[in-house]
Amino acid sequence: MSETGHQGQGGDTIDPPMAMLAELTHRCPLACPYCSNPLQLKQAKDELSTEQWIDVFDQAAKMGVLHLHLSGGEPASRRDLVELTQAASERDLYTNLITSGVGLTEQRMNSLDDAGLDHVQLSLQGADAQSADVVGGYKGGFERKMHVAEWTNSCGIPLTVNAVCHRRNMDDLDTMIDLAVTLQARRLEIATVQFNGWAVRNRAQLMPTSEQVAATTAKVEAVRERLKGVLVIDYVPADHFATYPKACMGGWGRIGINVDPTGLVLPCHAAETIPSLTFDNVKDKALPDIWYRGDAFNAFRGTEWMQEPCRSCERKHIDFGGCRCQAMAVAGDAAATDPVCAKSPLRDELRANAIAASAGDDTQPFVYRGRETVSS
Question: Are 168 and 360 in contact (CB under 8 A)?
Fold first, then answer.
């Protein structure tokens, strides 16, 4: 039974989280130049055990969590992935496996199906093997993805294709959309790269031009209409060329909760970049206590924390102030207006820097985490 009726800042009711992102591991065979995992990865020796993760799932289900996203790194790096999936399914959690496909086999997919896996979200780094394997830094990755999509469909598990778009592949969007249809995906997520984590190291190679962003937005609108009933398309546009910020995480501490490989509980994937916050661990505190009463979750929950112009803005219950991590990175103040917003004093500077980056030399090789640079 979920808890209800908790009061937050300003007297607002705090509802249970709807979804949990379980970062089972930071281990990953790929080396994507826009990897959003922390610059300091958590080590395998410090990961939660099978029993600890199952306890987290049990607490989440009792809180009222509905959706469980099994992620990483690459979750298939965990040998207990099938056992964890089964445990989540037994607790009536809707399980979504977010995977690169590397580490999965046909036998393992069948086992995941038997364990009750509800959905697969397969990442796509490019429209063909040559481009995808360069971006992922893993030879043979694209071919494995094609097999995983086939095995997923054979099991009857719904498939979403996640295509991270950036300067080097936005012009191939038509091909990626066609590939998603060929793979019998039910949903395609076209997500423009977010410039945090490792993506900052490859800013010039990845930052799309304003012309690419405009063309992509128009194309998505047209294709949505053309493929209605065939493919659902979710679109995450480029922050730097937007007028207003997105409602990051649906609002801080409103909908989603993240648990990292070591058990740290975070309001969002990148929250550790805000140095003023202290995070609780499921090894020390119960998950509901962290969600409802944790200092990190209450820091930017509701609207009482907002500065002007956010505090008096008519959009404060639409975008909830935007991204706190982006405010920290650009403004140096996590409580500042998201610099993406047209009302931010830093908006013009942010956009000018993005335009300058997109005009740079995008032929430079990617810088990969922990690897030698590989030319495109």
Answer: no
